[in-house]
Design goal:
- By secondary structure, the chain is mostly helical.
- Helices cover about 65% and strands about 0% of the residues.
- It contains five helices and no strands.
- The longest helix has 25 residues.
Length: about 120
């Protein structure tokens, strides 16, 4: 049974904070907190990342830019898994992922200035 976007039970998830909160509820409802130490979450993240890599492993660069519908659907599922475990890991460590990205962008801009940028 498919849901239209308006009736999808998770259609309200439109921010990282809302996603984090829904993941907390999902995990709590299943009593999975006991398995969600940062160590376990990072290992699961690594596995899901490897599953995403596997989809593209033997494709040419052009094939990877134009995946088949099956490859695209598999990539969508694995990207969702990676994001879920990344958000859960950040939450377990008390890290705001958006703040972390902002800080990292500043570091990267200093380390890798764009041509023409003044130092």
């Amino acid at each position: 049974m498919s849901s239209s976007p308006d009736t999808h039970p998770y259609a309200h998830i439109d921010t990282l904070d809302t996603l984090r909160d829904e993941l907390r509820k999902f995990v709590a409802a299943r009593n999975w907190q006991q398995f969600h130490a940062p160590k376990n979450l990072v290992m699961a993240l690594s596995v899901e990342t490897a599953e995403l890599v596997e989809i593209f492993q033997w494709l040419t660069p052009e094939e990877s830019r134009n995946p088949t519908p099956e490859q695209w659907a598999a990539a969508q599922d694995e990207i969702a898994d990676v994001l879920v475990y990344l958000i859960e890991t950040a939450d377990a460590l008390g890290i705001d992922p958006l703040a972390a990205v902002r800080q990292k962008l500043v570091k990267n801009a200093r380390k890798y200035p764009a041509p023409g940028d003044s130092a």
